[in-house]
Amino acid sequence: MFFLFFSPTRDGMPEHIRDFLDREHITWDEMEKLLNGFRAIKPDITVGTLLTFLYIARRTSNESSDIPISLKVLSDALGMSYQSAARHCDLLSEGVSGSGGLGWVEKISNPQERGKAMQLSYGGLVALLQVFEKLRPEGQTGP
Is the pTM of this model over 0.70? Predict the structure, then answer.
């Protein structure tokens, strides 16, 4: 038996998703579709957890995607406490005590900061693909 580990990078992310995540602004219609898309997958997802996920996904879509995001950087960038960021990342990864997580984010040991760093997982990329299908203009197919 072997395990296939997948770590999405900028090159592995479909162009239409990368382009959307790189944009500075979105319309209200796009915002509603984005929120509804994630709520269809996980109806009880909180705004803070979704914000944390989108921040990690956006970082994956840009040029620094090979560098996982430390919890400290994440909490500072989102203006939330370290503990809140850690709870959101627990839910986005394997869950509290290894159960109930979404599997959208991978936690990686970060020896420089003696903590964990976060990066988008294959499950997170699949969630993005599902949601971004709803954001495509009517009749558009392909990437």
Answer: yes
